[in-house]
Amino acid sequence: KCINASQALADRKAAESKEREARVIAAPICDASKLEEAFKTATANGMKKPKLRFDGFSVKPAKEGSRNPGALYVMAKGGVYLGKLQDGKFHKARDCSDDTESKFLCVMVDPKAAALDYARKTGACSICGITLTNAESIERGIGPICAGKVGF
């Protein structure tokens, strides 16, 4: 009985591994250089926990020492994990709708425009989330301090 149980476990692990590999192969390949550059600039300018807010989700880099170094995590409100961008591929999580995936892929093309769109819809800075009150900041979609740190 132990041998059968061990074999069943091994078979299940092998099937899960094949399923994971298929998802990685099917992950959309995209140019995330602008989004990645925004986070590199933010970190270089002293932001300890950079985060960008967009319509329906936010993006933040993996913590230092993470098992996904260099990844960008896509999160919904309430901390729901929607997926990760790593090595130029977006790995969609179970909780990520096709609509959110499509929005995220658009954000990667022009994160600055998506940040501005978020600010216009919410009235808040897409970096820190604080309500924008200055006319120039509202027009730019980002407060002056955050704009300098992220390079927008």
Shape: elongated
Major sheet strand order: 1-2-3-4-5
Given as residue ranges, the uncertain stretches (5+ residues, pLDDT < 50) are: none
Number of strand segments: 5
User: Could you tell me the radius of gyration in angstroms?
Assistant: 19 Å
Structural class: alpha+beta
Which sheet architecture does the biggest sheet show?
5 strands, antiparallel
Which oligomerization state do the chains in this entry correspond to? Answer: single chain
Order of helices and strands: HHEEEEEHHHH
Relative helix content: 40-55%
Strand content: 5-15%
What do these coordinates show?
With 152 residues, this protein is of the alpha+beta class. 49% of the residues lie in helices and 14% in strands. It contains six helices and five strands. The protein has a five-stranded antiparallel β-sheet with strand order 1-2-3-4-5. Helix 3 (98-109) packs across helix 4. The chain starts with a helix and ends with a helix. The mean pLDDT is 84.
Descriptive terms for the model:
152 residues, alpha+beta, five-stranded antiparallel β-sheet, 6 helices, 49% helix, elongated
State the gist of this model:
The chain has 6 helices and 5 strands, in the order H-H-E-E-E-E-E-H-H-H-H. It is an alpha+beta fold and 152 residues long. The protein has a 5-stranded antiparallel β-sheet with strand order 1-2-3-4-5.
Please outline the helices and strands:
Elements: H1 2-26, H2 33-44, E1 52-54, E2 57-61, E3 72-75, E4 81-86, E5 89-92, H3 98-109, H4 111-122, H5 135-140, H6 144-150
Antiparallel strand pairs: 1-2, 2-3, 3-4, 4-5
